[in-house]
# Entry
Amino acid sequence: MTTSLVTPGTDIGIVGELEAGDGTTTIDDRIVATTTGHTRIENGCITVEASKSIVNIEIGDTVLCQFEKLQEKGGEARILVVEGKSGDVLPNQLQGHFHVTRIVDRFLHTVADAVRRRDVARAVVTEVQPVVRLDFREREDCGVLHAICPSCGDTLEALVNGDWNVACPTCEYEGYRALADNFGAGWAELEQGASALNLSGKRWGKEAEQLFAHGSSGRATYIAADVREDGRERTYFRFEGQGQGRGRGQRAAPGCRLFVGGLPREVDTEKLRELFGKHGDMTDCIVMTDDSGASRGFGFVTYSEKANADAAIKELDGHKLHGRRIGVRDADNKEKRTKGPSKGLKLYVGNLPFDTDEKAITAFFGDHATINEIALATDKAGKPKGFAFVFINEKDKGDAVVKALNGNEINGRRIKVDISQSGGKKKPQGGKSSRELKAISEEKGKKKRRR
# Structure
């Protein structure tokens, strides 16, 4: 029997002279080590015994982990130890994933309401493929075992005070953690353990709901009393620059912040900055997006000088961009907030052939009206829906235009033309709304029944 330290890829024997055992493989006529360890030869068989054993996590294993990444509805924890098994965890199993509903038997607005980064916890493995998934509410001995104060770094102690079940002995911090039975070591001696302090199934009180109302970002930046008082002036974090929430940046001077509406979906922040940057120095520019990152069709531009903002409004309000006219106005002007730029009288034009374009509609109107804008309706794929909205300059001649054009043909199809109400609903003939017509119909029905 001989022993020597080898690394993966080291030639340790020849096929025929020795038999390949554990920790080895054969390549052509050579025996090669596949792990770092010591070679051992017994009865003509050569093996490599790993210097450190490897643990393969399985479903049902209990692990100790440390929270590293917290999101709103889930997170990741680094697995430190597999209880009952000795050795290093496989690299692809180091990170355990969990969902907010598997932390504690209580409604949580976000993961950070029950655990924090650097907390150490016990969990049960429920899945190993495609990723390791952890459950902290499977057993009462699962949950947070050790937690530190986010304000001063001291170790938290279990202490129930209303909605909170942990407190810092150094500063005034109080919070909530999904506790395991033996949180803080001594708590395992309780009749039910520290998990009884989780207030399972109970609703949050007024104090907690007031804190939750600030939103996840507001709770994350909540600052408790600073115990490291040394006489220096306290400075707190302040959001600056771009942001989609109010109050996060420095407030612009009156008249410098513009609202830009009617943006095509393909226009992003960079394209908006390129368009408005020609009129002066900007301190902020952003196109608002939804959760998927798609444009919501509007944005904000902030100039350093009001004169630049006025010039942008004069030049770009009503500007045609990718076939759409954009609206630009002072974002702080409440009087114009609901009005927007006037495009003229809006007419509904229906029963159009699907190949009808703006030129055909312009020719159809002829000399009957002056067209300011044409909006052809399309579906998500860009296919025409067979109707359009036409804005004409002659606001007081709408009835005459409708009378002259309604029922005329385009490519053999009889076109419907009418004055459109706000919200895209077509105004019915006679000037009565659908609700009025329905009331008249019901009244006629009652008279017939009485007769």
